[in-house]
Fold this protein.
Amino acid sequence: CNCQGTGYSGDRCTKAATVAKFQASEYIKYTAQDDPIISKFDSLSFRIKTSRTDGLVFYYKTDNFFMAVEVVENELSLNVGFGTSQQLISLEDNFFICDNEWHTVHIGRYESF
């Protein structure tokens, strides 16, 4: 079941999605499974409202993988690393996220990056 954009999660999209609000000095800590990624499709969706021109939005790291979603010079960027390789991806060119308006972000992976 693909729950993207529904506000629900889980195997059958019946579990309400987690919602959190926090200030610049606050953060969310989520402990993920230590198991390797075995699915063919993964997605991350969130809404963001900020006036900050730079900052870390999301960070996830295991022994062989990391992913960081950042606001870099007013734009949203995705930084992904597998082992020793790393790739920085601008999520949308010339789109300024720091306008203090709500934006919905969807990041997906199918098979590999």
In short: Strands lie at 8-9, 15-16, 41-48, 55-61, 65-72, 75-82, 85-90, 103-110. The chain is about 0% helix and 45% strand. The chain has a mean pLDDT of 77.
